[in-house]
C-alpha cells in the first residue's frame, strides 16, 4: 500500500546507482513521487544522462536531490560518497 511505502521512505537518504540509465532513472521518478524524502542521490558515470534526469527531477522534487558524477568501479570515490552522504538505502 502506498501510504506505508511513503512512510518507509520518509526522511531517508536514498542513493540510486545508475540513476541516469533506463532502470535507474525510472527508480528515481518513482521514489521522487513518494515525496518527503531526506534526499535523493542520483549517481551515474554518464554526464549527459545525469543532466537529463536532473532536469526532470527539478520539476518534481526541487532541492531534495543531489546529482553525483561517479563510476561505481571507483572504490575510493564510492567510499567517499557513502561516508559523506550516509545513505539509508542504496538501489
Topology:
Layout lengths: L1 H8 L3 E5 L4 H13 L4 E6 L2 H14 L4 E5 L5 H11 L3 E2 L1
Helix pairs in contact: 2-3
Notable characteristics:
91 residues; alpha/beta; four-stranded parallel β-sheet; 20% strand; single chain
Q: Summarize this, please?
A:
With 91 residues, the protein is α/β, with parallel strands linked by helices.
Describe what this molecule looks like in 3D.
The chain is of the alpha/beta class and 91 residues long. The chain has a 4-stranded parallel sheet with strand order 3-2-1-4, with helices on one face. Helix 2 links the parallel strand 1 and strand 2. Helix 2 runs parallel beside helix 3. The longest helix has 14 residues. The two termini are 20 Å apart.
- Quote the distance from N terminus to C terminus: 20 Å
Share in helix: 40-55%
Shape type:
globular
| Helix/strand/pairing category | alpha/beta
Amino acid at each position: 500500500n502506498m501510504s506505508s511505502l511513503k512512510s518507509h521512505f520518509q526522511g531517508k537518504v536514498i542513493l540510486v546507482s545508475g540513476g541516469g540509465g533506463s532502470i535507474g532513472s525510472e527508480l528515481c521518478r518513482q521514489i521522487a513521487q513518494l515525496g518527503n524524502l531526506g534526499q535523493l542521490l542520483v549517481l551515474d558515470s554518464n554526464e549527459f544522462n545525469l543532466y537529463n534526469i536532473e532536469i526532470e527531477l527539478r520539476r518534481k522534487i526541487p532541492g531534495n536531490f543531489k546529482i553525483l558524477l561517479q563510476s561505481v568501479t571507483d572504490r575510493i570515490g564510492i567510499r567517499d560518497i557513502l561516508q559523506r552522504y550516509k545513505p539509508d538505502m542504496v538501489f
